[in-house]
Design a protein that fits this description.
single chain, 436 residues, mainly beta, Ubiquitin-like (UB roll), Porin, 2 domains, 3-stranded mixed sheet, 4 helices
Length: 436
């Protein structure tokens, strides 16, 4: 009986203590900066007066401002006062405008130029322009991210030979597909057809919450095949989808060349107090028909997902999965295996079919982390199955990427090795950029 009375007393005291110590709330949020208005900074900051204050929410709110990548200095101060927490933000922001040129070689050569700008209009916005070409065609794109909105436009014009091989393989194509498979696989060549492709796409994305985005992409697409074969004509379509993501590390942008956007570099070099994970998932639906001006009915559903485990020492395990189903699609709109792979491998051939799924795993190990940059090695394995010719056909590869990223240069550069596990082919090439 005495034990029962004691337990009841303890529960009562716990209830009284919890009632007497309510969760802290956010009081005043003040901000100062060099170019931005205080209102712009406060709007982009996750926590607002009256919100519940937790260390986790405070950390995520700071990350949101770091990820704007326009600051040379960004300091936060949280001061408790009478059950409220007053937050002061001090920022030193600037603007940047940088051109840069790219070149690639191999079986084919390609070149490109880009122009990136940020915070020109004091809204923390970023804008870009990119144009490049090779003997297979030309591509150009431009876009801007302003507040919760993102806009982009892309134009591509290709003029290439599409080749078909045994076991449902066909060559990959694109402006920056610099490999040439014609000689290597000539003994298995079934035939080829000259192809022209024109594509104009517009993308609008809106951030609905900190973790959820919605997007829509109308596209004008036209294929022309030699000798009027296959499905030449208009393939106009519209894609709409949702993206859910959280705690995916944001890379620096071109402002890093002048020191902007590196306010969390010191934090990124420190070990984490504990391992953490992040995720991203996209679901999208593509449709086309008479209502889009298409000569063919198009109906496709897709899902992409990735999970990232970041260890205390910053090494990362990345697991990805993708699936697509073309319920209605003529030849040109079918699913290809390279769209179901992670993008870590390099291939000069792919498999085309009506539906498929893929998975991949990689481990990013940092050989070096210091104030100058990051040296990493990332082994990977990826596999996709595409339904073609009455059965599922595999496309898998393994290899790794050795890359180095200067903090003051936003793109990792290095070399990639990929072995296609189906045909035994090897690809070794220069790489720039990365997903994580």
């Amino acid at each position: 009986m005495k034990k029962t009375i004691l337990l009841i007393s303890l529960f009562c005291w716990a209830g009284l203590l919890s009632a007497q110590t309510p969760a802290a709330t956010v009081g005043r949020v003040s901000a100062s900066s060099t170019r931005m208005s205080p209102q712009t900074l406060q709007k982009r900051f996750l926590l607002k007066p009256g919100d519940e204050f937790t260390p986790e929410a405070y950390e995520k709110a700071q990350d949101d401002l770091h990820n704007l990548r326009v600051f040379k200095k960004l300091d936060f101060n949280a001061a408790p006062q009478n059950g409220r927490v007053n937050i002061d933000i001090t920022a030193e922001d600037g603007y940047y405008l940088f051109p840069i040129a790219f070149a690639a070689g191999g079986g084919k050569s390609a070149a490109a130029v880009s122009l990136a700008a940020g915070n020109l209009f004091k809204q923390g916005e970023s804008t870009f322009f990119f144009a490049g070409g090779s003997e297979d065609g030309f591509s150009a794109s431009a876009g801007a991210s302003v507040g919760d909105d993102f806009f982009s436009v892309n134009f591509t014009k290709l003029n290439f030979d599409q080749r078909f091989y045994q076991d449902y393989w066909s060559n990959t194509f694109g402006v920056f597909s610099t490999t040439d498979d014609e000689d290597e696989y000539n003994s298995r060549l079934l035939g080829q057809i000259h192809t022209k492709k024109e594509q104009i796409s517009l993308t609008y994305m809106r951030r609905l919450s900190r973790t959820l985005n919605a997007f829509v992409r109308p596209e004008y697409v036209r294929y022309t095949y030699s000798q009027n074969r296959l499905d030449g004509g208009n393939h106009n379509q519209v894609t709409a989808g949702l993206r859910l993501s959280d705690d995916i590390r944001q890379e620096a942008n071109m402002g890093a060349l002048s020191g902007y956007g590196l306010t969390d570099k010191k934090k990124s070099l420190q070990n984490l107090p504990r391992a953490r994970h992040g995720y991203v998932a996209d679901v999208f639906y593509t449709s086309g028909g008479d209502w889009t001006g298409s000569d063919y009915d198009i109906s496709k559903l897709g899902l992409d997902a990735a999970w990232v485990l970041e260890l205390k020492n910053r090494h990362m395990l990345v697991v990805e999965a993708r699936a697509q189903d073309a319920f209605k699609a003529s030849f040109s709109d079918e699913i290809v295996s390279t769209d179901l792979l992670s993008g870590m491998g390099r291939y000069d051939r792919q498999i085309r079919g009506s539906r498929g799924a893929g998975a991949a795993a990689s481990f990013i190990y940092y050989l070096l982390r210091n104030d100058t940059g990051l040296l990493s090695i990332a082994p990977f394995y990826e596999i996709a199955y595409v339904y073609a010719g009455g059965g599922y056909r595999p496309h898998s590869g393994t290899g790794g990427t050795l890359s180095y990223k200067l903090w003051r240069f936003p793109f990792p550069v290095g070399i990639n090795y990929t072995r296609n596990l189906q045909d035994g082919s090897d690809q070794v090439g220069f790489v720039i950029g990365g997903s994580f």
